[in-house]
Specification:
The structure holds 2 protein chains of 2 kinds. By secondary structure, chain A is mostly helical. Helices cover about 65% and strands about 5% of the residues of chain A. Chain A has a two-stranded antiparallel sheet. In chain A, a hairpin with a 2-residue loop joins strand 1 and strand 2. In chain B, helix 3 packs across helix 5. The chains are: A mainly alpha, B alpha/beta. The interface between A and B is large, with 43 and 55 residues. Bound molecules: adenosine-5'-diphosphate (ADP) and magnesium ion.
């Protein structure tokens, strides 16, 4: 059991593994639909949300798990992605850009913000960086709330007056959705036949594709020149500097790429919901993502994938639906069981930190490649 | 012979403590140079100045005709200065091979998109780098340990891995901070031979901090003695060995007087 936990990849090998995964992914919505009918609990929507969180967590894992930078305000990049999508597709702004173009711009904008935030702060180490990113995570939603009606003056001249950029706390709705009308024309279908709307099964596949793009990039980066440099910085920033790795550039790259994953996920999420509000990107989101990464195993891409799906589905289905259903029926009709959510995660974190601090599915290299140290290693280790 | 590195009046102060005090120092190409001196004499601090970790408080360091004071460590690595550490500083959770690959980082060209999409050029570059890393590990005597986590290696092997990682940067000047610290006599003897081999086979200049007098006296072309940040003696090993100031610094004035009697 321990072995399978440590190496989820070793369960099946080679091509068979990929075929099984593909079949599973394609059949999952059918199974979930059946389950939904049986149990009356929303499942596909929750799995969609979970997969969005997996994509977000993959980005955070690059920053926290690979580069070793504690970012407590990562939801800010999620917000930036979602709101960039909002600005580009909210009808009131008259841009109404295509979904397929907008999502990439969102990823890019988030990456640029990653660099803007990172440039002044990445000289800081450890706790200081955590505090600055925390502040940044608070500033972005506040900014969004206040840009619903803003006036910009420069030396007494009014440049912009009472402009509604973000629609304040009411949020932006409706937002752009993927438009397949060209396919309708191509195949001579009725107008609106491929209108995706809120169809959860469509969004399931859209989000699976998004997550796969993110997953693919993360896997490739993990095993590359840049990925090695991130890990070197995580292990010993000073030594990495002496070995020719520029710490600032390397950390900026982690921030930018982590942010771009988040920007992409944020854009798809915004489109799926069709409405976004500043409240969606609160501090709790940053913490929840951090919990996913830490519980799953920092630096482990497959771990974050599997752990993220489990934790976020557990949160959305069990904690949010099943538990209230059980307790609010007869036992505690008035009690808000949802408020126990953080108690659950708090306990989970403590238990993991005590019994398995490297996380449930830690990266392979940390666990397996250890030979017992010989006697000589114990002696004469000098400290300077 | 040509001079590869020249420190001119270099000082480094920490507040009121002057750890390195107006030091003049030159290194000739293809030579082994040792710095010795009591604990706290400023040897490691001088290393940190030469490798760009500290900016000298006064004076300057010239490497290959180029003023390098104020450059960052990673910039100096690129132009040919590499080092190991007094306390081993490996990337513990990375494999031996990955540790060496980090040393090659600045020579590899792949960018973010190359890393993600892996066009043939990047695949070739990576394959070549992995192979070269294997050869370097073999060279320092770590064949078979390529995929072991650095932290799991025995102490002596970790020292060798640090050297392999430094060699991977393709230095002209290699600084070794107490490479035999914590080693038994056999390992120390191996290290002496190995350092010689580095100079001869790899055309390196070596700057060595060393406590083991046997090591210093056997392999050095030049020995420099520091005390309280100042150079108190310099020359060929046998000259320095006889220098009264050196004996005094090491054993104290009283010992010197006793020796004279
Ligand atoms: N970062 C630092 N801050 C303050 N003092 C330091 C620092 N590094 C070294 N020193 C002091 O400088 C002196 C020289 O230290 P060091 O260069 O490590 O000596 P050595 O390597 O010759 O044993 C010592 O007195 C040490 O305490
Ligand atoms: Mg020292």
């Amino acid at each position: 059991m321990r072995d399978i936990l440590a190496h989820p990849r070793s369960m099946f090998s080679g091509q068979l593994r990929w075929v099984l995964i593909a079949i599973f992914v394609v059949l999952a919505p059918l199974a979930m639909k059946e389950l939904e009918l049986l149990t009356n609990f929303g499942l596909i929507t929750q799995v969609n949300r979970a997969l969005i969180f997996v994509a977000l967590a993959q980005g955070l894992n690059i920053v926290v798990g690979l580069a070793g930078l504690l970012d407590l305000g990562y939801a800010a990049f999620f917000a930036i992605g979602a709101y960039t999508f909002g600005l580009l597709t909210w009808p009131t702004h008259d841009i109404e850009m295509s979904f397929f173009l907008a999502i990439w711009i969102c990823a890019l904008v988030a990456a640029v913000f990653g660099i803007i935030i990172g440039a002044p702060t990445l000289r800081l180490r450890g706790d200081y960086l955590a505090i600055v990113t925390l502040a940044f995570g608070e500033i972005i939603p506040a900014l969004v709330r206040n840009l619903g009606d803003f006036t910009l003056t420069f030396r007494g001249r009014v440049l912009i007056e009472d402009y509604n950029l973000t629609n304040g706390s009411q949020g932006l709705t409706p937002l752009g959705r993927p438009d397949f009308s060209f396919l309708e024309n191509l195949f001579g279908l009725d107008e609106g036949a491929l209108n995706v709307g809120v169809n959860p099964t469509f969004w399931y596949f859209a989000i699976v594709i998004t997550s796969m793009i993110v997953l693919f990039s993360a896997i490739r980066l993990n095993n590359s020149r840049l990925g090695r440099a991130w890990k070197a910085i995580r292990e010993d920033e000073t030594a990495a500097d002496f070995m020719g790795v520029d710490p600032i550039r390397t950390k900026l790259a982690a921030f930018a790429i982590g942010a771009s994953f988040s920007g992409l996920a944020g854009a798809v999420y915004a489109s799926m919901l069709g409405a976004i509000f500043p409240e969606l990107f609160k501090f709790q989101v940053s913490i929840f993502l951090l919990i996913i990464v830490v519980l799953s195993g920092r630096g482990s891409i497959w771990g974050v994938l599997i752990g993220g799906i489990i934790i976020a589905t557990f949160d959305g289905v069990f904690l949010a639906q099943v538990l209230p259903d059980i307790f609010n029926g007869e036992v505690l009709p008035e009690y808000d069981v949802q408020s126990l959510r953080w108690v659950f995660f708090g306990i989970g974190l403590i238990v993991i930190m005590i019994f398995r601090p490297q996380g449930l599915f830690p990266p392979k290299s940390i666990e397996t490649k250890i030979v017992p140290p010989t006697v000589e290693s114990a002696e004469g280790v000098q400290n300077s | 012979m040509s001079i590869i590195l020249e420190a001119q009046g270099v000082s480094k102060a920490f507040g009121r403590l002057v750890a390195v005090d107006t030091l003049d120092y030159t290194i000739e190409a293809n030579s082994i140079n040792s710095i010795i001196g009591p604990n706290g004499a400023g040897k490691t601090t001088f290393f940190n100045v030469v490798t760009g970790y500290y900016k000298p408080t006064t004076g300057k360091v010239v490497f290959n005709q180029r003023n390098i004071s104020g450059s960052r460590p990673n910039q100096l690595t690129r132009i040919g200065i590499a080092r190991t550490f007094q306390t081993i500083r490996l990337f513990n959770n990375l494999t031996a091979r990955e540790n060496v690959l980090i040393g090659m980082h600045h020579r590899l060209k792949s960018g973010v998109f190359g890393d993600i999409f892996r066009p043939p050029a990047v695949r070739r570059e990576e394959a070549k780098a992995h192979e070269e890393a294997g050869q370097l590990l073999d060279y320092v005597g770590l064949k078979g340990y390529e995929e072991h986590a650095a932290k799991s290696l025995p102490y002596g092997h970790q020292r060798r891995l640090e050297i392999a990682r430094a060699l991977a940067t393709q230095p002209q000047l290699l600084l070794l901070d107490e490479p035999t610290a914590g080693m038994n006599p056999n390992e120390t003897q191996d290290m002496i031979l190995f350092i010689r081999k580095l100079r001869d086979e790899r055309n390196l200049s070596i700057l060595l901090i060393e406590h083991d007098m046997k090591v210093v006296m056997t392999i050095s072309d030049k020995v420099t003695v520091l005390d309280y940040g100042k150079k108190i003696s310099e020359g060929q090993p046998d000259e320095v060995q006889k220098d009264e100031r050196v004996i005094e610094a090491y054993l104290g004035r009283r010992a010197l007087e006793m020796l004279k009697k």
